[in-house]
Specification:
Helices cover 37% and strands 29% of the residues. With 258 residues, it is of the alpha/beta class. Helix 5 links the parallel strand 4 and strand 5.
Amino acid sequence: MNNKSFDSKRIALGYAKRPWLHKSVIEQMKIDCDLDEDFKFKNGLDVGCGAGLSTKALRLICDKVMGTDIADAMVEVCEELYGDDPAYSFYVAKAEETKIPEEKYDIVTAAGCINWVDEKKFMENMSDVLADNGLIVIYDFGITDRMAGNEAYTRWYQDEYLKRFPKPPRKENKWTQDDLPEGFIMEKQTDYDMEYSFELDAFVDFMLIQSNVNAQIESGSISAEQARDWMIQSLSSVFGDGEKQLIFYGYSWYIRKK
């Protein structure tokens, strides 16, 4: 699946309603980087910002933030949601082609987009836009086959969902120091779990914008309505009534510019 699959208003609006687990990633970052609770960076950049949830999270620790995304529809939604706040700015750009700002960024976040970029060009661009001693935080999180206290969900995920909506191919390599150009240090890499509560309808909305499902919707092999009906029917007995705790995995890589 290419990046154009994300350039639709349907996906952008769906992304705006995703679980705001990005905030938990920022809290994890404070622990991993030993930052004071009230620490603030001056100028932050969020590449591959999607509908702005990761930019909103970066704003928690930045005086001002810039968000960029390759998809016009994503940036359009960002401007609708955050455009009235002067602390936010957005423009359309590839993660590898962000503009050099008047004041270089002292932190850059890349949430869920690193698997789609040219790694060499991305780091060359980061060398240009990041201030000395600046920090790059590459992170992602995703749904797992685990629901708290419910093995039936695990069976549904493995035996029904992944067979109906297999994971599309993408790069999954974990960067090491050897992957970084001269002038950058991989300071730390962490993995962690997070939980988020869903009712069935909200969970189905979330699953409809996962790359597994979106790839088939965008290809025309299934409609969004058909995918929704299948999920509600197959999950109703698994999910039951009320909210359920879904378990997400997460990872963060912290790269420092010398």
